[in-house]
Amino acid sequence: MNKNNNLVIICMFIGMILGMAIGCAIGISKGNVGITMCYGLIFGMIIGICIGTIIKNSNKKE
Predict the structure, then answer these.
(1) Are the C-beta atoms of residues 47 and 15 closer than 8 Å to each other?
(2) Highest taxon of the source (predicted)?
(3) Residue 35 predicted with pLDDT over 80
(4) What is the pTM of this model?
């Protein structure tokens, strides 16, 4: 694994953690924590991978 892949993995984990936190907060307010945490985890991971890939590709062009 090179340093660019590490960047994608770090962004993925940050997205997962933020997604779970946001999903938990929304779930507590709605009274349904489990489902919203799962959705937050999945969407956070996808968004983190996308952001990491965009950063990796922009660094690759330079």
Answers:
(1) yes
(2) Bacteria
(3) yes
(4) 0.78
Q: What is the DSSP string of 16-56?
A: HHHHHHHHHHHHHHHT-HHHHHHHHHHHHHHHHHHHHHHHH
* Residue 54 in tokens: 């965009």
Per-residue burial over 35-57, b = 16 or more CB atoms within 10 Å of its CB, e = otherwise: ebbebbbeebbebbbebbeeebe
Q: Residue 40 and residue 19: Cα distance in Å, rounded? A: 4
Instruction: For CA atoms 4, 52, 43, 30, give the dihedral sign.
Output: positive
In angstroms, the CA 6 to CA 55 distance is: 12
Higher pLDDT pick, 56 / 3: 56
Which tokens is 4 given? 């660019």
